[in-house]
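We include the pair:
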Amino acid sequence: MRRFCYLWVIGWLWLPLMGNAASVPAAQLSADQREWLAQHKELRVGLVLQAPYAKFDQRLQQLSGANVELMKWLAQALDVELIWRNYQDLAQLEQAARAGEIDLVPGLTQTPAGLRLWQFSDPYMRVPQLLVGTRNGTGSVDLERVDSQTRVAVRMPSATADFLRSSYPGLNLQGVPLERQALQLLLSQQATYAVIDEAQLSRLSVEPEFAELAVVGDVGLPQLLRVATRRDWPQLAGIVERGLHAIPARDMEQLHSRWLQPKYPHLGPSPGFWQNLSLLMGALLLASMAIVVWQRRQQTGLERALLSAREDIVLRTASAQALRLSQFSIDQSPVGILWVNWDSHVRYANRAAEVMLGYQPGAVLDRPLSDFEPGLNMDRWLNMWRRARNRKEGVHRSETLCVRADGSEFPADVTLSFLRFQTAEYLVVYLNDITERHRVQAALQESDARLQGIAANVPGLVFRLERSLLTGELDFPYISEGSESLAGFSPATLRLREVGLRSLVHPDDRADYHRVQDLALDSDSDWSWQGRILTRQGEQRWAEIKAITRRLDDGTVVWDGIVWDISESKRIELELDSSRGQLRELSAHLESVREEEKARIAREVHDELGQMLTVLKLETSMCELAYAQLDPGLNERLNSMKKLIAQLFQLVRDVATSLRPPILDAGISSAIEWQARRFEARTHIPCLVQVPEHLPPLGAAKEVGLFRILQEALTNVMRHAHAHTVELTLSVEGKDLCLSISDDGQGFVPATGRPTSFGVVGMRERVLMLGGTLFLHSVPGEGTTLIVRVPLVDKS
């Protein structure tokens, strides 16, 4: 009751200051996002059936819950259909996600392992971990003041229990497997408090068994719920983010209250605090009401008096204000205005005309127009007067040279208009000083001439492409004379709409050229293209086209570009690519020879040295049988020699294995599992391996290459990653064999320039020699992922 009074008082005090809350508009999506949504009208939603987030009513055959209602809002905002997929636990859901069966999942928390599978949105809901006690307490509880004799029940193992151990080392924690058992311990007085998250508490609080419990505090470890989307659909992540932001905050609060708010009361600091606060707010309420009533009475009297005075003032000043506004507009106009009588003498001049003609205020009055334009005689003036008076030619406009008071001249734009005011007739002359316009025109002509000179000396073709605002058609208003030397066509020929630059492109490259140019034209963006062109004589040349877009003041979109001959540089580039390819082939050959030499040395070491050591071991055993009983010292030396021979046996096996592990003869899958177990034995780091049971036939070179890449990657993990787990995955994806190596170590920032790690360079070169691709992704603090793809069948 006290809380209701407090909220009612606050709402009454703030009611005059608040209006109706504005509705939140729908998500504003970009053109690319709307296009993506138009292509994906159905989205598959994965749900873990766990109340109150999601539950399935068998009788009604329908889903309900906080996450279900959220996704329905999101689907309505984005105008998409949802296909529901239900799972019993998170492990089944993640397995379905890896199989590509779901597109997005609500209600997940962000983890380092989950970042490899999902893209997460910003949190849309906060689920706190609450401290529950009995209602006979005096108020809220601070865990830092709880003594070590007080038992606190919490589910173990869990992140909440780990947080309580690290944050409150003095707590006496009692672990239970389920939240229900924690509340039952609280009721049976085997524990004083229980820690349970708000969602589970809302589910259990409706049961009569737990009706006498209450929330006495917040542990401080909230669970942030997010919407997870497929990593290979980054557009969907942006669309979901916009959709979540479009949902009003009060709707999210109502969703939280409806599904997650427990039915227990939240105990405050103390009952006396709320009593005192209620009394204080009541006193403030009475004082505010009295002040408001007195102010309203005073305001009513003042408004009546002011209204009467205002009406009187408005009536008196309306006509004077209109006159002043008209006079002010004419006086302050930037255009010079002269009222001229039929005898060409000035009757009125505004300030702009006086300044333009160089006269003091009032000095222009009664002067004839011939003082300002010497060539204007009386006959010419009267002829202009008659034409304007008869309105046969409408407004007359011309350019002339006017003379200032100091004798200097300036170009002016003169407009004549006839005016009849009461019984008098005037010719209104509007003057505009166009000196700046002439200067700009001269500068523009000089700039055009400079552009023509620059374009004539550019080793290529300079062009401008414009798109009409009305028709949308494309035209070339300018093409430089360099078109003759580049393609053998004159600028006039290339400016023809049916010719243009597209006619120069080689037939084999036209599809790529049209794709690049059409994309730039549709998006009003810059574009760049390299390809072959054909000259008028049929000669083939390599050319590069670059165009920069800009929008003129009238909205016209233009592309300024240049086309130049890059045949020589392209020839050098092709020769360089050929040289690199030969070097890579040579490197692959040397690597193959090196692996064959390693295999040969491994066989010789294993066979030759193994046979010698076997003979030596037999001879030592024979000596031991023949002479060991004769001399105890000799027996001890023979035992020492046998130990050394056993060590040599192990050393020979290790050397042969390091040169070429025999497990490679059993296939790459067995070799990966063998290397993983060996890595675990050396580093004590768990290594999770997933390999298919049956693989298509793979060449020996590819098996050895993949195995060497795996060895190098695991060596980097051992030296630098400081990881806790490593995951190795070998899979067949289409026509490629994919090897993935992931760790949860400290990660690093990949180099953007020249790489400094020779291990990464070596792995990349091995992958290129195998005809595949290498992808390396690492984020500091979130681990590293290395993905290698090689074709199962060699490309011819």
Summary: The longest helix spans residues 271-331. The chain has 21 helices and 28 strands.
